[in-house]
Amino acid sequence: MLRTTSWCQSRTLRIRIDRHSCRLLSELFIISKQAVKGLTSVRSYLELLQMGDDEDTKSIRSTKSSKSKKDDKGGIEDDEDERLDFILAYFTKSYRLKQERWSKMMAIEENKKLILNFLNNPKAKFMIITITTAGLLTPFTQFNSAIKNKYTYFIKKKEEVVTMENFVDVVIFGDMAGKPIEELAVLLDTVLLPLLGNAGNQKGWPQVVADDVVAHVRTFKNAVEQLRGAMKSQTILPMPQGMSRLYEAINNFEESDGATIDLVLKASLESAVTKWANVCNEILKQSSTIAFAGDNQPTPSREVEFWNARLKNLEFIYDQLRDPRVKQVAKMWSPESWRLEMFAST
């Protein structure tokens, strides 16, 4: 009865810790996402405030004042929309944009309606403006194949009409590269993982929660890396957590004559090797007959393209397997290696 009670208590504690760690990870991602967006908006706004003495801003003001004067017929043109001037000032600073490109975009009635609809319609929540491959500044309401370069996004936080007074409070805006997956991979590798994996940022956390958070971030990073490779028709082998401790674990194992074993690293390596084997098997099972799916009738060139792509992918996998750390893992699993005891004895 005592054993059953202690087992139930430990299981309940483990479930609570798992739930707590998942909730904590979710909150950390939300906070980091909001922080990055908030910093982008504030930085963009402050940069615009400092543009008062820039020549580009002076030219914008002079153009605006000239347009507000009377024309030859004696009529007076309406004052320009200050919100459009704000966006133009941002593009002038971020893209070093000339006024001519902006004028060409606004001269197209469809483009002007799209931008004004985003500003005036509370239901319009998303807009992208970018320079297309044709060199034209063009707005979009969704992602499409024409967006291949740097673009600026505008996202509404609230369903409100955008005014000059509430622009920064209602709209999140900033610049993104044409390859968001690449940026996400860099963000994870250089910001989130070092930030959450730093012991100084884990003060007050239970060790189980800290390890769980880092494990989830690394799993997410591996998923992004695999997606990044799939977009290039390349297979990326996910590296196990704790790979950086491999040589240290081997030295400790050798110096202690097999008494000291890093069980966490052991489990991680076993899981990774199993995944690598499954991935390689799937690649080797691929056949060129997939081109005939859906009653397609491919030309002989498709066959050549398939084998060329497969050759490049296998070479890419081979380069990853030549990593010194991966070679060290392979030695452990070789039958003649005494280090196999590190995995077989537990």
UniProtKB/TrEMBL annotation:
PANTHER family: DYNEIN AXONEMAL HEAVY CHAIN 12 (PTHR46532:SF11), MALE FERTILITY FACTOR KL5 (PTHR46532)
Domain Dynein heavy chain tail: start-end pairs: 268-332
GO CC terms, sorted: axonemal dynein complex
Organism field: Tenebrio molitor (Yellow mealworm beetle)
Start and end residues of each stretch annotated as Disordered: 58-77
Lineage of origin: Eukaryota, Metazoa, Ecdysozoa, Arthropoda, Hexapoda
Signal sequence segment: none
InterPro entries in the record: DHC (IPR026983), Dynein_heavy_tail (IPR013594)
A Pfam family it matches: DHC_N1
Molecular function per GO: dynein intermediate chain binding; dynein light intermediate chain binding
GO BP term (any one): microtubule-based movement
Protein name according to UniProt: Dynein heavy chain tail domain-containing protein
Coiled coil: none
